[in-house]
Specification:
Elements lengths: L15 E5 L3 H13 L2 E5 L3 H10 L16 E3 L2 H5 L4 E4 L6 H5 L11 E4 L12 H8 L4 E6 L4 H5 L4 E6 L3 H11 L4 E6 L2 H23 L4 H21 L10 H12 L4 H10 L4 H6 L6 H16 L4 H12 L3 H9 L10
Parallel strand pairs: 1-2, 1-4, 2-3, 4-5, 5-6, 7-8
Antiparallel strand pairs: 6-7
Helix pairs in contact: 8-9, 8-10, 8-11, 8-13, 13-14, 14-15
């Protein structure tokens, strides 16, 4: 049965949208949608966040100091957020996305479009977010929203371009229409696997970029890392059936450049701390938000083994994170690998 567009979903007409997850990205997207005129209800796990948004129009925990549209309503009950909403935005971290969405299955319209803003790989099954949602909310169309988009800059109204990927182009077009604003441009894409894999793996490369920065290395190694990191992402993507051009697009090269070089990148910041001798356990103990690249590094190593693909940068990042390998030694081991051709066949 073909997916029906939202009943009120024509461009420029208010649509009810439920948002699950009030971290910095979920809150920013909820605010963007509310400012556009949609009827947006944002579920937050933390009661303090619900009160902060509804009473002071600010998410003091995850987006402090940034005013939110007064029309944005926060909910403590997730069923209230998703009730009769033709579009549901899932912005929960990858390791809790299933736990957040699965219990809501009875309360979500069967014809609802589920938009995933999650970037990661669920362990232990090594599933991308769309595959998780296909199991937790069966029968609904799923769209991946990804691309180079720091939450703070989107909230400021800085021009941003992202991708909405779905197997059905008409579904992608509905989301493209619902989310696009004069400052937030949404392109459509039909490579769901490629877009989500890019969104996950770029975080691992960003940790590596932070490690280089923390070691005091310069522009040459950073350029080499980003380029070879993209090669790794593409290699695994092709093995999993993704389209090669996706990796040269906004979800691939675009998001990789942003996350590997931008000062607002949590994954890059983690890499810098690791290079300066901080252990993962120490870092996570003092940071409320865990960088997605940590869990992704371990899962990506598993995917590489499953598909028989080499991911040398990812493997070294995982060794630093989980085996205590010295960052300087990891860089040396990468440079001393067996010489080979740049391109693979």
């Amino acid at each position: 049965e073909p997916v029906r567009p939202p009943r009120e979903g024509a461009h420029g007409i208010m649509t009810r949208i439920g948002v699950l997850g009030a971290g910095s990205w979920g809150t920013t997207l909820a605010d963007l949608l509310a400012r556009k005129g949609h009827d947006v209800r944002l579920w937050a796990y933390e009661a303090d966040v619900v009160r902060s948004i509804n009473e002071r129009h600010e998410n003091e925990l995850f987006l402090a100091g940034r005013a939110l549209d007064p029309r944005l309503v926060a909910c403590a009950d997730p069923f209230e957020a998703v009730d009769d909403a033709p579009i549901i935005l899932s912005a929960a971290p990858s390791h809790v996305a299933r736990g957040v969405t699965a219990p809501l299955d009875p309360g979500i319209r069967q014809d609802a479009i589920i938009v995933s803003a999650t970037k990661g790989i669920e362990a232990p099954g090594l599933l991308l977010p769309h595959a998780v949602l296909a199991e937790s909310l069966p029968g609904r169309a799923v769209v991946a929203l990804s691309g180079p988009s720091f939450a703070a800059e989107v909230h400021e109204g800085q021009p941003t371009a992202v991708v909405a990927a779905a197997e059905d182009p008409t579904v992608a077009a509905v989301v493209q229409d619902a989310f696009s604003t004069p400052k937030f441009r949404v392109y459509s894409n039909d490579d769901l696997v490629g877009v989500e894999l890019c969104g996950a793996l770029k975080n691992v490369v960003a940790i590596a970029a932070g490690i280089l920065e923390g070691l005091g290395l310069g522009n040459n190694p950073r350029a080499a890392l980003i380029t070879r990191g993209l090669a790794e992402m593409t290699r695994l993507g092709l093995a999993m059936g993704a389209k090669p051009m996706t990796f040269a697009g906004l979800a691939g090269m675009g998001d990789l450049i942003l996350t590997a070089t931008g000062g607002l990148s949590r994954n890059r910041a983690l890499g810098m701390a690791l290079a300066k001798g901080e252990r993962l356990e120490q870092y996570t103990a003092t940071h409320r938000t865990v960088a997605e690249g940590v869990n992704t590094a371990r899962s990506a190593v598993g995917l590489a083994a499953r598909y028989g693909v080499e991911l040398p940068i990812t493997a070294q990042v995982a060794a630093i994170l989980f085996e205590g390998k010295a960052p300087k030694q990891a860089v040396g081991d990468l440079m001393e690998r067996t010489l080979k051709a740049e391109q693979w066949r």
